[in-house]
UniProtKB/TrEMBL annotation:
One of its GO terms (cellular component) is cytoplasm. The keyword GTP-binding applies. GO terms for molecular function: GTP binding; GTPase activity; nickel cation binding. GTP binds at residues 22-29. Homodimer. UreD, UreF and UreG form a complex that acts as a GTP-hydrolysis-dependent molecular chaperone, activating the urease apoprotein by helping to assemble the nickel containing metallocenter of UreC. The UreE protein probably delivers the nickel. This is Urease accessory protein UreG. Its main location: cytoplasm. The lineage of its organism: Bacteria, Bacillati, Actinomycetota, Actinomycetes, Micrococcales. The keyword Nucleotide-binding applies.
């Protein structure tokens, strides 16, 4: 791939890990397919999908031919999606690190959460940044309802805007509601059928990668992590952690310091 092309020629310490979360069916897999189509010719990409009982999202992306099949790895969570993206990220972190090792160096690894409710967001120990996806078909009022993903994800996508006339949603109002809930953080009205919106999404990813490589992007936790226990070195139960400052990972190191 184009190591000499923008956004940077300097070697990153590791890939940019970008999470994509949001309610069931809002278009997370499709958004990842769109990003891959837009950027696969200029960046080295990998994908990890999360499904509860299947590897369906990975199979969808492989069959769409957006990346070579082995660059798309599936995690079966066997539990509510938030469990594997926030409460215990081990299986996802291993999948990401396997990808990064197998295809070293990668520029971006996209991690798709299983569809969950409005409270589910990624731990900053797993991803450097996250996109939260809503769609117009879920109702124009959803953006007003708030929650950590809507309010504080790095980017909020209002997806499937091509469907808005058919479901009676005014996209401009929905975006304005979302911007108010986000206190100025970016909102993108997206449709895979709208090339300009797709290019805006691709440009956002490129810009984030530049910041990641420069070390100027700080991973944020959109919501408090549930209190949890770590096993101590003897295998017993260790100390209760809350990590509610948004700056620390499961191992107590700065969230962006994983190798
Ligand atoms: N009209 C339209 N449909 C879209 C768009 N993006 C996705 N869809 C459709 O929305 C449906 C759900 O898309 P997915 O990408 O599977 O959604 P998801 O969030 O990954 O779904 P889960 O993994 O089940 O939570 C599919 O039928 C897609 O074809 C869009 O921009 N416009």
């Amino acid at each position: 791939m184009l190591e000499t092309s923008s956004p940077s020629t300097s070697a990153p310490a590791r890939s940019l890990r970008l999470g994509v979360a949001g309610p069931v069916g809002t278009g997370k897999s499709s958004l990842i397919a769109t990003v891959c189509r837009a950027l696969a010719s200029e960046l080295r990409l990998g994908v990890v999908t999360n499904d509860i009982y299947t590897d369906e999202d990975a199979r969808f992306l492989r069959s769409a031919g957006v990346l070579e099949p082995d660059r798309i790895r599936a995690v079966e969570t066997g539990a509510c999606p938030h469990t594997a993206i926030r409460d215990d990220i081990t299986v996802n972190l291993l999948a990401v690190e396997d990808l990064e090792r197998d295809f070293s160096p990668l520029d971006v690894v996209l991690i798709e959460s299983g569809g969950d409710n409005l409270t589910a967001t990624f731990s900053p120990a797993l991803v450097d940044a996250q996109i939260f996806v809503l769609d117009v078909a879920g109702g124009g009022d959803v953006a007003r309802k708030g929650g950590p993903g809507i309010a504080r994800a790095d980017l909020l996508v209002v997806n499937k805007t091509d469907l808005a006339p058919y479901v009676g949603v005014d996209v401009a109002t929905m975006v304005a509601d979302a911007e108010a809930a986000r206190e100025g953080r970016q909102v993108l009205a997206l449709s895979r059928a709208d090339a300009a919106s797709v290019e805006t999404l691709a440009a956002w990813v490129r810009g984030l990668l530049v910041e990641h490589r420069a070390g100027t992007h700080t991973p944020q936790d959109p919501g408090p992590m549930a209190p949890h226990f770590h096993a101590d070195e003897e295998g017993g139960v260790g100390t209760l952690h809350t990590h509610d400052d948004g700056q620390h990972s499961h191992d107590g190191q700065p969230a962006h310091s994983h190798p």
